[in-house]
Amino acid sequence: AKRALPRLSALLDLFLTEHVDAKLKPSTAKEYRRLANQFIRPPLGHMQINDIKRSDVARLHLDMKPTPYQANYALAVMSKLFTWADKYGYCTEGSNPCRHIEKYQTKQRQRFLSDNEMAKLGQALTEVEQKGSESSYVIAAVRLLMFTGARLSEILNLRWDQVVSE
């Protein structure tokens, strides 16, 4: 029975195909694949699913300490994988080795364009506008993003009644 259990590498392939590609946004799926192939598969892919212990996952997480955001995201991907594997009977029920591993504390990141970057972007927008190679709506949206700090989805879903008050 133990020999019949899948190796993590095979289960990762199945998880990425049946769950990630089928149910997540393409950009999220791409990031799941990157983390799986770059950080999870190399150290643990050869192991059978039920042989992976919390100490193995903790070691992987600790090895990624220089990149805490990626470490936490890789941990979340592994946890999701084990939850999925448990749900579909690929591993012993309730055996998620990612449980109780403490994530790294991270600081909220903020990045603003420098004056030089703002000038270059403004110049590029003016050039595109003069050439007529892009929609004026796209150019206006980028300018709104530059000067308001709003999220892309907030600008794209903006309604006129949110702009003008009566």
Distinctive features:
single chain; 166 residues; mainly alpha; 8 helices; 63% helix; elongated
Mean pLDDT: 91
- The stretches of 5 or more residues where confidence is low (pLDDT under 50) are none
Q: How many DSSP-defined strands? A: 0
Give the SSE string. HHHHHHHH
- Overall outline: elongated
Q: Strand content of the residues, in percent?
A: under 5%
How many H/I helices? 8
Would you tell me the structural class of the helices and strands? mainly alpha
Could you describe the largest sheet, including whether it forms a barrel?
none
Radius of gyration: 22 Å
Distance between the termini: 71 Å
Helix content: 55-70%
Structure description:
The protein has 166 residues and is mainly α. It is 63% helix and 0% strand. It is built from 8 helices and no strands. Helix 1 (8-23) runs antiparallel to helix 2 (26-44), helix 3 (54-63) packs antiparallel against helix 4 and helix 5 (115-131) packs antiparallel against helix 6.
Topology:
Elements: H1 8-23, H2 26-44, H3 54-63, H4 68-87, H5 115-131, H6 136-148, H7 152-156, H8 160-163
Helix pairs in contact: 1-2, 2-4, 3-4, 5-6
Short description:
The chain is mostly helical. It is built from eight helices and no strands. 17% of the residues are buried.
